[in-house]
Each structure stands twice: as structure tokens, then as C-alpha cells.
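cron nightly-structures :: item 1 of 1
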Amino acid sequence: MKYILPAIGSVAAIALFAFSSANQTAVAVEPASETNTFEQLDLFADVLARVRTDYVVEVNDAELIENALNGMLQSLDPHSSYVTPEQFKELQVTTSGEYGGLGMEVTMQEGFVKVIAPIDETPAKRAGIKAGDYLTEINGKSILGLSLTEAVKQMRGKPGEDITVTVVRKDEEPKDITITREVIKRVVVKSEVKDGIGYIRLAQFNDKAEEGVVDAIKSLKKEFGGKIPGVVLDLRANPGGLLDQSIKVSSLFLDGGEIVSTRGRVASDTQRYNGEAGELAKGVPLIVLIDGASASASEIVAGAIQDRGRGLLVGMQTFGKGSVQSVIPLRGGRDGGLRMTTQRYYTPSGSSIQGTGITPDIAVAAGPDNGKADRMRREADLPNAILNENLEAEGDEEMEELVIDYPAEDFDVEQDYQLQKAIALLKGGQYASKLADLQG
């Protein structure tokens, strides 16, 4: 199976991702020294034996080996890891879009559990959990030092049960927030008419994404009496998901043609993914909203729309998750599997966004400019992040500084400045001229 992980570290929404049924192919690689490899394996066995006999407390062999496997794989890049049999089951649960818990996506950052984003219409969202929050305690007990899987396991439980999480937020005192667990039936697509323009919010690319966007477009057509004057597709804080869903969603706005390509270790290991003909939203002016938490599958859609000249991207630089992971079962999955980065993906123009992200056509900030360097952590900031090969070839060049439109200092963030700007572009007739300028 091939996966495009939602970006941001080892994301625990684990809801993630997967997609093409292409067969795995093995590439023969000449070992540097078979004798040396066996010597290193003997060293590992010796260290394991010493820990078992001499460590100050008794240890669990299975946990030691699992941690060793993760250490090896995570030294490669942030998205490669060992997948336990239990995590295999989690992948199946979360791609179906329904599970028990609080409704937030989290990652591990420097030993802390960090909220990527609360999921729309869930207990976490209603309780006021925000993107960027750090969770330090659950029911009064510290979770510092726990693995991400262990922390997530503590957050899940029977629907109806209360859980209290301690939240640390920038420039604020830690506070306890009590949340009632629910069965999370994730609503990934919402649509409505905002100020005379169609608005579609896509929260994640799970297996219901395309179906939801199709229903949204049809609903908007009906509401507008057949012709939609313009659509804002909101992919902000969308961490990604299923590759096939990103292609299907792109196809709704693009009449066939290439959406994305993937390339592996050797030049011949290239696959191109084309959209289906029959663009559902044909001729509808389109703006895609993006930000620093738009990642992976979101970047595929945004990159395809931008490269093909189909619409404008408004917002901020995206996360920069441009790699594909393959999950290789061990003993048919009975021993879990290896989740390894095997390919990078490319936009239709052949650009890799790994570590750099996608630059909006019109840069608009969500809040006022406070003069602080507090941008969101992105792919390039993660430990052992794979470099963009274009930068490797050309040397580290600083990205062109964006000219960003900031709202006024007294602007209420709840009014959504980025969305206001997108609607203004579509309603004011500026959309066509801006798009024409960008197309040259």
C-alpha cells in the first residue's frame, strides 16, 4: 500500500492516508559489506543481552526491540516508522472516518503532545481546543515522556465519559479543559453560501471526501439556480489523507489531465496520476484557501489547481509534505509493518514541494502582524526532514519573501480575514484579471 502521510510529524489522527494498489517492487542494492552488517547485528544482540541482565530494573524485550526499530527508521526521516499490529487496526478505523475520542489531530513535538487542529463539530472543537495548543496532563497525570500512541490511547475511551486535559497555550497560564468523549463521526465536508459566493470546507481527505465535495457542488448549484458565481474551497488546516481522494477531488475542478506524479529511488520508478474527464464545477471561478497546516493531499490539490491555471491560491505558504510512504506488512501484518518513505510527489509542472511548500498566488494572513517570528512549524523544521532535491542541486537559496496582506491590529480573527479577501476577489471582478496576470 502507498500512503501519503498527513504531514506534521507522526500525526496521531492516524486517520490517514492510503491509496494506490500498485505492487511493491524491490530494488536490489549491493551491501557495503555483508560481514560488517553481521558484525553490527551481533553488536545489537550483545547490547540487548546486557540491558536484559544488567539494567537497573527489569525490561520488556518486545518494547526494547520495537523502540530500536523505530530508532532506526525515524533516523531516516520524520515519516518512517515501525507500525505495530494495533496501529494497523487504527489505520483502518480512522480512514473510515469514525472512531471514539475527543476529535483532534495531534503530533509529538520535542517530547510534547501538540494539537495540529481540532476537528470540526467535535467535542475538542466545542471545548475551545485550538491549533498549536500543547497537552501536558490527562486527568491530572503528566503525559510528558509518553509515546504519541500511548498519549492518544489515554485520550480515547467510552463515549459519554469525561476527560480533563491540561492545555498550555502561548502567553497564557496552563488551564484544565474538561471534554466529554463521543463517537467521532467526522464530517469532512461542509458547504454554504457566504455573501453570495459558494463556500466548501474540506477538513480531511478520508474515504468520504470526494462524495462530500460532489454533494456540496450539487447543493450549491441548486441553491444558486443552476449557475454558481464562484467557489471558495477551504483547505486550511487540512493535514491530508488518501491519495486517491486528492486525485478525485481535483478532478471535480479539472477536466482530466495530470494531477500529480510520484518518483522513487530510480528514474524508472515514476507514476503519473491523471484526473477523470467531466469536470463537475466546469467554468466556476475558483479560489483555494491554504495555510501552514495545509499538507500532503491538500498540497496535491492546491498544486494541481495552481499549475493548471484553474484557480487562485489565497492564504499562506503550505506545510511542505512532499513524500510518499509505503506500508510493508511483516508476516502478513501479524507483526505489524514498516512505514517507509519510498517516493516523492510532484505537481503537474514537475515541481517538488518537499520542505518548501506551495506559495499562494495572493498571500493573506489570518491575523494582524505582531512582528514576531512565530510562524507555524513546517516539514523542513522536523528532525531528519528530507531535503528538496531542487535545493540540494542548486544550493540553499532563500525563498522569495512573500508580500503579505495583514488585517488591521484591531481585527477580530473570528471574522476570517482570508475568507473575506477570497470572497472580495470573486465578487469584485478582480478574479479574472488576477488569474490572467498569473497565467501571463
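cron nightly-structures :: done
The mean pLDDT is 85.
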